Amino acid sequence: MAEVDGKAVCVVVPSDREVSMKKLAAAFGGKSANMMKPADAERATGYHVGGISPFGQKKLVPTAIEIAALDETLVYMNGGQRGLQVRLDPKAAQVALKAIAASLVA
């Protein structure tokens, strides 16, 4: 979870990569981005840090998915608790999340 110009957004990137805050802000048409504080992310999503899923959050927030993920047949995403991963088609995830696809990694 992150904030772009002070508004909550969900970011889906490969676990071995780091989000580029500059690219994240640009993806949402904003000026600045930063990672959300853990307590704020937990309050906003209803999930605990380490188990935050882009699915089933308390409120629907704008979501962005790393564009390179769409080239994969299947990806794993957090299923809503630590250690729970779901395997799915990234294009189906993008549709379900109403996510924008953008280059988000540094």
Describe the structure.
This protein is an alpha/beta fold. It has one domain (2-102): YbaK/aminoacyl-tRNA synthetase-associated domain (YbaK protein, Alpha-Beta Complex), CATH 3.90.960.10. 22% of the residues lie in helices and 25% in strands. The chain contains three helices and seven strands; from the N terminus they run E-E-H-E-H-E-E-E-H-E. It has helices spanning 21-27, 38-45, 90-97, and strands spanning 2-4, 7-12, 33-35, 63-66, 75-78, 85-88, 100-102. The chain has a five-stranded mixed β-sheet, covered by helices on one side. A two-stranded antiparallel ribbon has the order 5-6. The longest helix has 8 residues, at 38-45. It is globular, with a radius of gyration of 13 Å. The two termini are 16 Å apart. The relative contact order is 0.26.
Strands, helices and their partners?
Blueprint: E1 2-4, E2 7-12, H1 21-27, E3 33-35, H2 38-45, E4 63-66, E5 75-78, E6 85-88, H3 90-97, E7 100-102
Parallel strand pairs: 2-4, 4-7
Antiparallel strand pairs: 1-2, 1-3, 5-6
